[in-house]
Amino acid sequence: MAEDKQKRNELHQLDEETLFIVSQTFKALGDPTRIRILHLLAQKEHSVNEIAENLSLLQSTVSHQLRFLKNVRLVKYRREGTTLYYSMDDEHVMNVLEQTIHHAQHH
Predict the structure, then answer these.
(1) Is-contact 75 66, C-beta < 8 A?
(2) CA-CA to 96 of 20 to 30 Å: which in 28, 37, 40, 54?
(3) How far apart, in whole angstroms, are the C-alpha atoms of residue 26 and residue 17?
(4) Inter-residue contact 72 to 28 (CB < 8 Å)
């Protein structure tokens, strides 16, 4: 009986890698600039220059934020010549973001 309880507790424990990924995901969603970038990419893929132009940001700022978002696997890119096109890479997180935006707009 005690063994069964211990096994159930182990199943409900979060491992360190999962905790790290979850905390980094919320960190990514906690920054207004990254939210703006993700919201834009939820509509369609964009190059760094297009993102910078659409959001009135410096290209270096966009590149820095995209690097962070790529590291936490929220965005991905494809190369076309010398241009990188970014798009969303995690539909679950994007759904959470869009639902949160919807919540904020109708609160």
Answers:
(1) yes
(2) 54
(3) 14
(4) yes
Q: How far apart are CA 73 and CA 80, in angstroms?
A: 20
- pTM of the full structure: 0.81
Question: Where are the chain's structural domains?
Answer: 32-107
pLDDT-based confidence at 9, cuts 50/70/90? low
Looking at residues 99-107, what average pLDDT do you find? Answer: 89
Q: Which amino acid is at 42?
A: A
* Residue 102, CA atoms < 13 Å, CB-side half-sphere: 6
In whole angstroms, give the CA distance from residue 69 to residue 29.
9
Contact at 8 Å (CB) between 37 and 87?
Answer: no
